[in-house]
Design brief:
The chain has 105 residues and is an all-alpha fold. Helix content is 83%, strand content 0%. It contains 4 helices and no strands.
Length: 105
């Protein structure tokens, strides 16, 4: 197989894969019956992702060092900000800022 024919074959495969991934949601959800599934996914995906990120972050923490204390203070600030303002972005930024300031001192 020559280089040109290989490149054309690769471009054809990428084109078909891109078209298929763009078309699949419209084919699967065109009947309108899956609205409940979409609403469930839209409602529950952000908390699931945040839970996974928190678990991933906490797995590498040395709990007997200052890093562990800083981590728990940052988590506490994040939770308090989220309960107070109900703004995920603000609470994440506040917790991250507290952690970065604590680590740099």
């Amino acid at each position: 197989m020559t280089d040109i024919s290989y490149l054309l074959l690769v471009m054809l495969v990428m084109t078909v894969a891109t078209y298929a991934t763009r078309l699949t949601p419209f084919v699967l959800f065109s009947r309108g019956q899956e609205r409940a599934l979409i609403n469930f996914i839209a409602k529950n995906t952000p908390p699931m992702i945040m839970t996974i990120l928190v678990i991933y972050m906490l797995k590498g923490v040395n709990y007997l060092s200052f890093e562990g204390v800083y981590t728990f203070i940052a988590i506490l600030v994040t939770v308090v900000f989220h309960l107070y303002k109900r703004n995920a972005l603000l609470s994440i930024i506040a917790g991250t800022a507290v952690y970065m300031v604590a680590v740099q001192m």
